Amino acid sequence: MYAFTLEQPKTLADAKRLTTGGAQALAGGQTLIASMKQRLLRPENLVDLGGIDALRGIQVDGKQVVIGAMTTHANVAGSAEVRKHLPALASLAEGIGDRQVRAMGTMGGSVANNDPAACYPSAVLALGATVVTDRREIAADAFFQGLYTTALEPGELITSIRFPIPTKAAYAKFRQPASRFAMLGVFVAHTGSGVRVAITGGGNGVCRHAGLEAALSKSFTPEAVAGVAIDAADFSGDLHASAAYRAHLVKVQTQAAVRQANG
Ligand SMILES: Cc1cc2nc3c(=O)[nH]c(=O)nc-3n(C[C@H](O)[C@H](O)[C@H](O)COP(=O)(O)OP(=O)(O)OC[C@H]3O[C@@H](n4cnc5c(N)ncnc54)[C@H](O)[C@@H]3O)c2cc1C
Question: From residue 50, how far is each of 23, 55, 56, 72, 77 by CA, in Å?
């Protein structure tokens, strides 16, 4: 490691002041600390968000589940409210990484980081969630902008995420066994008026699939997925899987998610 300062504010206002001044937010450190150790990032000033109670917690607000940015994956997975109103999200959180990652990793850190193989971005996008920051509200469709890129401006802090409660939803992840991230994961959400499908692990960041959404909006069945064309050119290949294999997994995982959502 190398020298850096660490501030531990107790209020969002103090954290805002520090990040606006150029300091970098630290959540559970599951990505950031590892990136610093590898010298991929060298922030001079860190702001630990862990002492700000207002950034933690889960509320069910009418037709939405609102989750604070500093809520850990373990807390989402174990929440009776999330299990009741959004079981697909609880099960997604339960399948993230290992026990340590779930104990330290946070909703806000995962969504801000926008790793192309992370699980939460697919839930945020498929459910049409809203990312709430210290400055504004950002619709999921405008938030994710490609590989590790989001609509967040420098110093902008995610405070919570609002998830509309769907009629049916499920996440099916084909796990990359070494990292435990998604080799390919598909989140399907039936909103009542239509179906949204978000794919993670495909290459350039989470994305929706218009063909799958159209087919599943007509018939929310695994059979409806069979006739949808999935173009391997839309996906990336690497040492873990070719683009063609990922395209194949899109269908398989979508069918698995629909089956799960239909119970
Ligand atoms: C071994 C391992 C396995 C994993 N497996 C999975 C998996 O299966 N699925 C999956 O989805 N993820 C997985 N992860 C990622 C993990 O879930 C964490 O959520 C992710 O690493 C981010 O960590 P963090 O929340 O501690 O954020 P940090 O590492 O502290 O921060 C990450 C980035 O987000 C920024 N940030 C943090 N909080 C905020 C905020 N509130 N507002 C604005 N910016 C913010 C930071 O400045 C930094 O740039 C894995 C990680 C590891 C190490």
Answer: 15, 8, 9, 11, 19
